[in-house]
Amino acid sequence: MMLRPREGHDQRIIEARLDIQPAPVEIRWLHDVFGNSVGVARFEGRARELRVSSTVRLDHTPTNALDYPMERDAETYPFSYDVDDMADLARSIKRQYQDADREVDRWARQFVRRDGPTRTRDLLTGMTNAIRERFTYIGRPERGVQTPMQTLAKNSGTCRDFAVLMIEAVRSLGIAARFVSGYLYVPERGGRIGGGSTHAWLRVYLPGAGWVELDPTNGIIGNRDLIRVAVVRDHRHALPLHGTWTGFPSDNLGMAVEVNVTAAD
Fold first, then answer.
1. Which of 39, 92, 236, 254 is exposed most, by the fewest CB atoms within 10 A?
2. How confident is the model over 72-105, as pLDDT tens digits?
3. How many Å apart are CA 204 and CA 123, to the nearest integer?
4. For residues 171 and 213, what is the distance between their CA atoms, to the nearest angstrom?
């Protein structure tokens, strides 16, 4: 289970409660290779259903990525990472999908100016807003993610698809990026897309600013309304709930997911 938000300077857990029915005979917690909090439950005996309820109260501090100070050399694209950082960032720059026809490369390059220097903030902001404005969000409960090339061809997808597309796009430009899974707060008349279920976005590494959150589904620059739970290099490592059970195929009656994020008074 990947349900517990990651703590940091911008979000701090005040209270967390996990209720599981039927009660597991054992539950243990660990941190995966990315530092995410993972719960592992083991059961015995039979049950008619499995119900997992996670309730968390946290202190969340919104930040605006456009206000982040960057190192001078990183304010314009292209820029280079420090050689000491590259050992850890290299796998977050490596492309995940084969792009034989360079479709993602061409799409990403449209945000790089040809008539002069490209401001790094403008590049990332333009790409984030372009996905929000030009692509159609279509919810899809099935597991899995479209390839970036499929998302470009269909001009539509889920928050997972949009996050993966932008990750591959910025990686094609040599910028380190990671996949983020978590929850989205949708204020009244907020116009946010992706509430009521788990949400996906990305973060990029900028020298001097660190890891900066970007949500192409909603055009969010920074972490406002985004509650980070898991950060991974590959989206397949961020499954909120997975496991195995023993029974007949007909025993599977489906799964329902509900996520409610509210602001405290």
1. 254
2. 999 999 999 999 999 999 999 999 999 999 999 9
3. 12
4. 15
Domain parsing of the chain, residue ranges: 11-60+240-251, 65-237
Instruction: Confirm if 1 and 43 have CB atoms less than 8 A apart.
Output: no
**What is the pLDDT at residue 188?**
76
- pLDDT tens column, 234-260: 999 999 999 998 988 888 888 899 999
Omega before residue 62 within 30° of 0, cis? no
Contacts of 179 (CB under 8 A, 6+ apart): 163, 164, 167, 200, 202, 231, 232, 233, 234, 235, 237, 238
The CATH classification of domain 65-237, taken from the options 3.10.620.30, 3.40.640.10, 1.25.40.10, 1.10.10.10? 3.10.620.30
- Give, for 14, the enclosing helix (H) or strand (E): strand 11-21
**156-157 and 136-137 as β-strands: parallel, antiparallel, unpaired?**
parallel
| All residues at 6 or more sequence positions from 23 whose CB lies less than 8 Å from its CB, including other chains | none
Under a CB-based contact definition with an 8 Å cutoff, are residues 92 and 233 in contact?
Answer: yes
